[in-house]
């Protein structure tokens, strides 16, 4: 559980780069702008008060509803959320509680609203090596480009696969190299 | 008179070493399932390792977006198929965290028994298969002999031997059958002395030590940077175990249990020297293959101890065994992430709900996925024969990596 003053610390240090937060949620989260992400992550990892030396998970959640009737009731505009879960193997020795923090970056579903143009977010692979494979997986399945990633290729799907399966509007191909898909 | 060769280039061509690409897998027996490694070698020395994944990819996460949490439980079995019980537990706790569902004490102790038995079974395969990787067949047979007895116990509890779906959100599908605890205790009593056989076969075997000690060394900083968890992390001397350091919903299961995190501290493993397991050989360096193996072996002893404590508590505990939630239970709006200590590392589940019974997003954070990502760095500069030793010491299960 992250302590509430982490949010204030980040706000004081990074100002506008911290776009919002929900500290009431079961897992409190902090929203960071795409531009400020790398700086914030660098601070969280190296600041002696926090030492988030482990990046547990990178995920993308696709907020999109193909059914227009349901979409009207959904209460959000279509967008993608990149979610980072960080934890520390060091900090627990200081205050004795489990420390985990959730960062979010909000992205449009398509860059410049042009369908097919994948949205971009800076890579954090230079901060945690875990991010290398996790970003590849996220790119592969959810279609988010991590700029500055050393080797952004598909990892789970074959290299000639088309589309990003975890997008809500993804359609399974009819055929792949002679194998029936649907 | 010394022999002379007219054209010196002939000799140079002959002894010149070329870089060579060697493909290992996906059906290679020592790659633990369908892992494919492409090695760039210069003679015997490996200069680059490139793992290729995805041969077992089933997009379980996408399936999870079309099923209710209870319906998805069988899919978690098929991730780490050697520790299905622990996968079930991770997912069940994640859903319970979202529902804010409280379990009775009896249900918690039941879960400890099952999870720790699962850990023993999983580490037995890990140990036996590691022997196979290094070219010895017998430890595998010894390991499977004992694992079979655990599977028999699991079969009696839930009807399945590999894909259990026993622990579900809300509790478990059934209570332990009558007489099960006595059988379980009898197994532990029989099993505990057998561990000495494994130590004789592998841990203290001088060939085994030569193959694993001082090979594939990873320091604490490197393993945390790569997000390695479980025995890989603890084998490098990082004192971190979610059963003690995890989130309250998970650690409360282990409240008041006596156990030490198996990691070397100040050059000593816990309970050192008051124990009957073999000492660390002088060749071994912290963070090498031998230490990762050793941590697993000690965790088996630790798990036996935990099951014994849990059996005692379970018998005296009140409440039900945990009635599962409804199959189509509506989930509250919100999102949760929870990691648990599975045998191979920290298995995380992430659940995003819109307020329907079917989640918007389900994510499984695989421990082996991160553990394997370290291969290319740790294998660089190793000799070819050490690659299976290093990959084997990570103890990966491809079902969990590819999901």
Question: Can you describe this structure?
Answer:
The complex is a heterodimer of chains A (182) and B (403). Chain A has 182 residues and is α/β, with parallel strands linked by helices. Chain A is built from five helices and nine strands. Chain A has one domain: NADH:ubiquinone oxidoreductase Nqo5 subunit (Beta Polymerase, domain 2), CATH 3.30.460. Chain A has helices spanning 4-14, 37-46, 68-74, 92-95, 130-142, and strands at residues 18-22, 29-32, 54-63, 79-87, 100-107, 120-122, 145-147, 175-176, 179-180. In chain A, the strands form three sheets. Chain A has a five-stranded mixed β-sheet with strand order 1-2-5-4-3. Chain A has a two-stranded parallel ribbon with strand order 6-7. A two-stranded antiparallel sheet of chain A has the order 8-9. Chain A is globular, with a radius of gyration of 18 Å. Chain B has helices at residues 8-15, 60-64, 69-77, 84-99, 105-133, 138-158, 180-203, 206-212, 220-225, 231-234, 242-245, 248-251, 289-316, 367-373, 375-379, 386-394, 398-402; strands at residues 19-24, 36-42, 45-52, 167-168, 171-172, 334-342, 345-353, 361-365. In chain B, a hairpin with a 2-residue loop joins strand 6 and strand 7. In chain B, helix 3 (69-77) packs antiparallel against helix 4 (84-99) and helix 5 runs antiparallel to helix 13 (289-316). Chain B is globular, with a radius of gyration of 23 Å. The model of chain B has no long low-confidence stretch (mean pLDDT 86). The interface between A and B is large, with 36 and 40 residues.
Q: Oligomeric status of the shown chains? A: heterodimer
Roughly how much helix do the residues of chain A carry, as a percent range? 10-25%
What's the domain count of chain A?
A: 1
**pLDDT below 50 for ≥5 consecutive residues: which ranges of chain B?**
none
| Order of strands, widest sheet of chain B | 1-2-3
CATH superfamily of chain B: Cytochrome-c3 Hydrogenase, chain B
Number of domains of chain B: 1
CATH level-1 class of chain B: Mainly Alpha
What percent strand of chain B? 5-15%
